[in-house]
Amino acid sequence: MKPKPHIVGLPVYKPGKPIEEVKKEYGLEEVIKLASNENPYGSSPSAKAAIQAELDNLSLYPDGSAAELTASLASRLGVSSDNIIFGCGSDEIIALIARAFFLPGDETIMADQTFSVYKSNADIEGAVSIEVPLVQGTHDLDGMLARITDKTKVIWICNPNNPTGTIVSGPALTAFLDAVPDRVMVVLDEAYCEYVTDPSYSDGVKLLDRYPNLVVLRTFSKIYGLAALRIGYGVARPEIIKLINQVREPFNTSRLAQAAAVAALGDQDYVEECRRLNSAGLVQLQGEFKRLGLEYFPAHGNFIMVDVRMSALDIFELLLRKGVIVRAGHRLYPTYIRVTIGSQEQNQVFIEALEAALKEQGVRA
């Protein structure tokens, strides 16, 4: 049984280590996971109540069109229902875009250190990924424009960028979109947009009327705290949404996810509180990194990427032994770890563990 030749050897996505595995492996009672950019405060109480209310309907298929959720989100965003598509996380929307638009040999442009799912899905469809180096952790938009050819189908911009946490400003983004040919799709991945407080940041959804080739991706996994339910969405012109829908599997989002997402959308006070707490946690970690003499990228999501001045994989292992899970192994940043902004208490535990690990390795502030 032979697979497609171009998928042989493709890397398998490696998620952050699960808490239970770390507890078992190292004999720990308490472990803090700051590796997957999950909301440390969980989901809205109203979302939990909606899940509970839906439990008697587990024997029923979900609404394949997610009509109630679509209407709620359309009202929230100020768009029409036919501008929206839902997926099993925004990851699935990425895969559906690749399935719908890439032919073998097509080219797609992305940063050289960004969300890995863009490249993996392009690889699966036989497209050629053009990776443009980041500049100080930020997308090089001029460099991306320079790489557009007649074969270019899709450009991916992760804003804020994962893993570096940097943003493309609104003026820079619109200047870029003005320069991109209409035939080239631009996918703006705003998975962390609700955390951004920088006034220069631009809401991608508000740009859709101006740019017919734009697709905006968002998720309920991050600030809404519904990562376990796997639900995200894309917003674009109806003609693009229709094409993506044509390759979508039926019932790709669950009843529980749809109900919880509707309730979560209705509790924007909870979202605002999570944003406030995240901003405070970010200030806390930045202050500690400065005290330790560690450089970091400007952070705008619910995570920060910091240079630990030694092998990030070694620090990752030392932190595991101390009961803290972070993210390491970024191919272009071998001395950087990415850490999720936790609660104040979690952040303090992380900083104490990091400082101890650095001292053990002879890294001084």
From TrEMBL:
InterPro entries assigned: Aminotransferase_I/II_large, HisP_aminotrans, HistidinolP_aminotransfase, PyrdxlP-dep_Trfase, PyrdxlP-dep_Trfase_major, PyrdxlP-dep_Trfase_small
Cofactor(s), names only, from the UniProt record: pyridoxal 5'-phosphate
Annotated metabolic or biological route of this protein: Amino-acid biosynthesis; L-histidine biosynthesis; L-histidine from 5-phospho-alpha-D-ribose 1-diphosphate: step 7/9
Signal sequence, renumbered to the chain: none
UniProt cross-references to CDD domains, sorted A to Z: AAT_like
Domain of life: Bacteria
Protein name per Swiss-Prot or TrEMBL: Histidinol-phosphate aminotransferase
Organism listed in the record: Paenibacillus sophorae
